[in-house]
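User: Predict the structure for this protein chain, please.
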Amino acid sequence: MFTRLGPKNLEVLHEIAPKATVVGVLLNPNNPNAGPQLRDLQASAPLLGLRLIPLAAGSVLEIEGIFATLQQRQIEAMLVSADGFFFGLQDELIPLAARHTVPTVFPLSDYVAAGGLISYGANLAESWRQTGIYVGKIVKGMKTTDLPIEQSAKFELVINLKTAKALKLEISPKLLALADKVIE
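Assistant: Here is the predicted structure, written as C-alpha coordinates:
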Protein backbone atom coordinates (compact mmCIF):
# COMPACT_ATOMS: atom_id res chain seq x y z
CA MET A 1 0.00 0.00 0.00
CA PHE A 2 2.80 2.43 0.85
CA THR A 3 4.32 2.10 -2.60
CA ARG A 4 1.03 3.09 -4.26
CA LEU A 5 0.76 6.24 -2.14
CA GLY A 6 3.80 7.85 -3.77
CA PRO A 7 1.81 9.95 -6.26
CA LYS A 8 -0.39 11.27 -3.43
CA ASN A 9 2.75 12.16 -1.46
CA LEU A 10 3.99 14.03 -4.52
CA GLU A 11 0.71 15.99 -4.63
CA VAL A 12 1.00 16.83 -0.95
CA LEU A 13 4.60 17.98 -1.41
CA HIS A 14 3.55 20.15 -4.37
CA GLU A 15 0.78 21.67 -2.24
CA ILE A 16 3.08 22.50 0.67
CA ALA A 17 5.98 23.73 -1.51
CA PRO A 18 4.28 25.02 -4.69
CA LYS A 19 7.33 26.94 -5.91
CA ALA A 20 9.46 23.79 -6.01
CA THR A 21 9.64 22.34 -9.51
CA VAL A 22 12.55 19.93 -9.13
CA VAL A 23 11.93 17.11 -6.66
CA GLY A 24 14.46 14.55 -5.52
CA VAL A 25 13.09 11.07 -4.87
CA LEU A 26 15.08 9.12 -2.30
CA LEU A 27 14.98 5.43 -3.24
CA ASN A 28 16.71 2.33 -1.93
CA PRO A 29 18.27 0.59 -4.97
CA ASN A 30 18.26 -2.69 -3.03
CA ASN A 31 14.47 -2.69 -2.77
CA PRO A 32 12.66 -4.44 -5.65
CA ASN A 33 9.75 -1.99 -5.18
CA ALA A 34 11.97 1.02 -5.97
CA GLY A 35 11.41 0.70 -9.74
CA PRO A 36 7.60 0.49 -9.55
CA GLN A 37 7.53 3.35 -7.01
CA LEU A 38 9.60 5.54 -9.31
CA ARG A 39 7.46 4.70 -12.36
CA ASP A 40 4.29 5.68 -10.48
CA LEU A 41 5.89 8.97 -9.41
CA GLN A 42 7.21 9.69 -12.91
CA ALA A 43 3.71 9.23 -14.33
CA SER A 44 2.31 11.78 -11.84
CA ALA A 45 5.07 14.40 -11.90
CA PRO A 46 4.31 16.01 -15.30
CA LEU A 47 0.66 16.48 -14.30
CA LEU A 48 1.92 18.66 -11.43
CA GLY A 49 4.57 20.45 -13.51
CA LEU A 50 7.37 18.71 -11.62
CA ARG A 51 10.67 17.23 -12.71
CA LEU A 52 11.88 14.26 -10.69
CA ILE A 53 15.46 13.34 -9.96
CA PRO A 54 15.89 9.78 -8.65
CA LEU A 55 18.36 9.60 -5.77
CA ALA A 56 19.52 6.06 -5.01
CA ALA A 57 20.89 5.39 -1.54
CA GLY A 58 21.45 2.07 0.16
CA SER A 59 23.56 3.32 3.08
CA VAL A 60 23.70 6.23 5.51
CA LEU A 61 26.90 7.43 3.84
CA GLU A 62 25.15 7.54 0.45
CA ILE A 63 22.23 9.45 1.97
CA GLU A 64 24.59 12.04 3.43
CA GLY A 65 26.30 12.37 0.04
CA ILE A 66 22.96 12.92 -1.68
CA PHE A 67 21.94 15.69 0.71
CA ALA A 68 25.32 17.36 0.22
CA THR A 69 24.61 17.63 -3.54
CA LEU A 70 21.00 18.88 -3.43
CA GLN A 71 21.87 22.49 -4.16
CA GLN A 72 24.27 21.54 -6.95
CA ARG A 73 21.52 19.41 -8.55
CA GLN A 74 19.01 22.26 -8.05
CA ILE A 75 16.68 20.02 -6.05
CA GLU A 76 14.08 22.18 -4.33
CA ALA A 77 12.07 19.51 -2.49
CA MET A 78 12.40 15.86 -1.54
CA LEU A 79 10.19 12.79 -1.36
CA VAL A 80 11.36 9.89 0.79
CA SER A 81 10.00 6.68 -0.69
CA ALA A 82 8.31 4.01 1.38
CA ASP A 83 11.08 1.61 2.31
CA GLY A 84 11.89 -0.33 5.46
CA PHE A 85 15.50 0.85 5.23
CA PHE A 86 14.45 4.51 5.43
CA PHE A 87 11.91 3.84 8.21
CA GLY A 88 14.81 3.07 10.53
CA LEU A 89 16.74 6.21 9.59
CA GLN A 90 14.44 9.02 10.68
CA ASP A 91 17.10 10.23 13.14
CA GLU A 92 19.42 10.79 10.18
CA LEU A 93 16.95 11.92 7.51
CA ILE A 94 15.11 14.60 9.50
CA PRO A 95 18.22 16.54 10.59
CA LEU A 96 19.64 16.31 7.05
CA ALA A 97 16.44 17.74 5.56
CA ALA A 98 16.47 20.53 8.16
CA ARG A 99 20.16 21.36 7.71
CA HIS A 100 19.77 21.55 3.94
CA THR A 101 16.43 23.40 4.24
CA VAL A 102 14.68 21.12 1.80
CA PRO A 103 10.91 20.60 2.15
CA THR A 104 10.51 16.83 2.49
CA VAL A 105 7.47 14.56 2.46
CA PHE A 106 7.68 11.26 4.32
CA PRO A 107 5.55 8.11 4.06
CA LEU A 108 4.77 7.84 7.80
CA SER A 109 3.59 10.19 10.53
CA ASP A 110 6.40 9.01 12.84
CA TYR A 111 8.81 11.13 10.79
CA VAL A 112 6.67 14.23 11.32
CA ALA A 113 6.31 13.59 15.05
CA ALA A 114 10.12 13.49 15.17
CA GLY A 115 10.44 16.85 13.37
CA GLY A 116 9.85 16.09 9.69
CA LEU A 117 7.70 18.46 7.64
CA ILE A 118 4.77 16.43 6.32
CA SER A 119 3.56 12.89 5.72
CA TYR A 120 0.71 11.11 4.05
CA GLY A 121 0.32 7.40 4.52
CA ALA A 122 -1.46 4.51 6.12
CA ASN A 123 -2.27 4.82 9.78
CA LEU A 124 0.05 2.24 11.35
CA ALA A 125 -2.00 1.93 14.54
CA GLU A 126 -4.99 0.93 12.41
CA SER A 127 -2.86 -1.57 10.49
CA TRP A 128 -1.67 -3.17 13.71
CA ARG A 129 -5.26 -3.31 14.96
CA GLN A 130 -6.30 -5.13 11.78
CA THR A 131 -3.38 -7.53 12.22
CA GLY A 132 -4.52 -8.25 15.78
CA ILE A 133 -8.04 -9.05 14.56
CA TYR A 134 -6.59 -11.46 11.98
CA VAL A 135 -4.43 -13.17 14.58
CA GLY A 136 -7.44 -13.47 16.87
CA LYS A 137 -9.45 -15.18 14.14
CA ILE A 138 -6.61 -17.62 13.45
CA VAL A 139 -6.20 -18.39 17.16
CA LYS A 140 -9.93 -19.13 17.33
CA GLY A 141 -9.49 -21.75 14.59
CA MET A 142 -10.23 -19.95 11.35
CA LYS A 143 -8.13 -21.10 8.40
CA THR A 144 -5.93 -18.44 6.85
CA THR A 145 -7.20 -19.47 3.42
CA ASP A 146 -10.73 -18.49 4.51
CA LEU A 147 -9.72 -14.99 5.59
CA PRO A 148 -10.19 -12.15 3.10
CA ILE A 149 -7.21 -10.07 2.05
CA GLU A 150 -7.52 -6.57 3.50
CA GLN A 151 -5.56 -3.37 3.15
CA SER A 152 -5.47 -0.30 5.29
CA ALA A 153 -8.36 1.95 4.52
CA LYS A 154 -7.42 4.69 6.96
CA PHE A 155 -4.81 7.19 5.81
CA GLU A 156 -3.51 10.25 7.59
CA LEU A 157 -2.05 13.59 6.61
CA VAL A 158 0.22 15.04 9.28
CA ILE A 159 1.89 18.46 9.16
CA ASN A 160 4.56 19.89 11.45
CA LEU A 161 4.00 23.67 11.60
CA LYS A 162 7.22 24.29 13.52
CA THR A 163 9.21 22.69 10.71
CA ALA A 164 7.19 24.56 8.08
CA LYS A 165 8.00 27.83 9.84
CA ALA A 166 11.71 26.96 9.98
CA LEU A 167 11.60 26.31 6.22
CA LYS A 168 9.70 29.59 5.70
CA LEU A 169 6.74 27.76 4.18
CA GLU A 170 3.22 29.05 4.44
CA ILE A 171 0.68 26.26 4.83
CA SER A 172 -2.55 26.88 2.96
CA PRO A 173 -5.79 26.85 4.97
CA LYS A 174 -7.01 24.11 2.59
CA LEU A 175 -4.10 21.82 3.50
CA LEU A 176 -4.50 22.56 7.20
CA ALA A 177 -8.20 21.71 6.97
CA LEU A 178 -7.37 18.40 5.28
CA ALA A 179 -4.77 17.44 7.89
CA ASP A 180 -5.64 14.70 10.34
CA LYS A 181 -3.03 16.05 12.74
CA VAL A 182 -1.14 19.32 12.97
CA ILE A 183 1.92 19.46 15.19
CA GLU A 184 2.64 22.92 16.56
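The longest strand covers residues 22-27.
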